[in-house]
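Methods: example folding runs. The two proteins below were folded one after another, and each record is reproduced exactly as written to the output file, sequence line first and structure-token line second.
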Amino acid sequence: SLVVRRNKGYAIGKKFVDQNLRYKVVSSLVYVMQIALTIPMFWSENVYLLKFHSNDEIRVIGLTICFFGLVLSVSSLIFLGRNYSPCYDSYKPFHLVTNGPYKFIRHPGWLSKFLVGIGGILVSGSWWFVPVLGWVYIEMERTIKVEERYLFESFPEYDKYYEKTFRFFIKNCYRLPSKITYISFPASTSM
């Protein structure tokens, strides 16, 4: 996977769509900072770590959520196959993937990142990770809008797929509208 990314093997034969260097650079820094902060959380009670818990049961719950996020991530990558391109360097896929986790969720890769983020907050027990998760969510929203725009434009069947799947969560959760509908109002008349 790293070799494919490093050599941009994911881009072979595909049309370039979007690049988000901010996400690429900042996410690498965030990753290193998360590791650097999480390790001391287990042994230090320093006030600057902004801890909200030191409970091992909560940490186990966090690790479980991280595990499910990682399983979802790997499953998503397997089903994407050659359609994969990283969120910071997007290329149009060869075809629309609608099986595996994509049968229910349009963006399981982003859901997996979000689950790992929630799990990371619970494992670390630090408030420092909450704004990080907020930043991931903002980047996720930006990227999904770009992805869905080119999927609507590229695949006529995406409209039907969009209607029968959820953006992130399976059954009984809300769907956030990703398709924008413009409403025009008649010009106001002066009285």
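Second run, written to the same file directly after the first:
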Amino acid sequence: GHRAYTTRVLPPEPVVVLLGGPSGAGKSRLADRLARRHGWCVVRLDDFYRDGDEPGLPRSSDLDAVDWDDPRSWNAEDAIAALEELVRTGRARVPSYDISTSRRTGTRTVATAPGAPVLAEGIFVAELVGPLRERGLLASAWCVTRPRALTALLRLVRDLREARKLQQALIRERQRSFGPLRLSLLMRPAG
């Protein structure tokens, strides 16, 4: 007689590609382009910021405000857990975060196809390299950069457009990158 053998082929696991760099460098835009072109899933790591009223957030002494550029303002453990769940199961619930109110506003489900890369982009990807490598999930990590002054200008324009922070705080923050004279020239009304 004949024996029937069946083999079960498991799809390869998706892998995580990290896109990091300073705020305003173009990480989100690059991730969007790659997602459109290849159909890859994108996880916005900005959605893992802590709520602005959470006790113990790091503070910037010169701005007397939360220091959102400090990794302690962000929940690395939740981001790692979501990426691991996404890779292992193909789906994960991730927070939705409103930067203008510094608050999580809900959750949403992200999904990926078997074997497809998962792009995770944000300023704190360096915090994820080691833990994702240890779990066997990291494919690669990339740093997106532009000239410093251009990055600062693009960040300022985006933050003002999206009302991410109070205008005065944004201007004070950006004076470190531009210097007061150059920033005042950029902020002059046309005409």
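Comment on the second run: The two ends are 91 Å apart (CA to CA).
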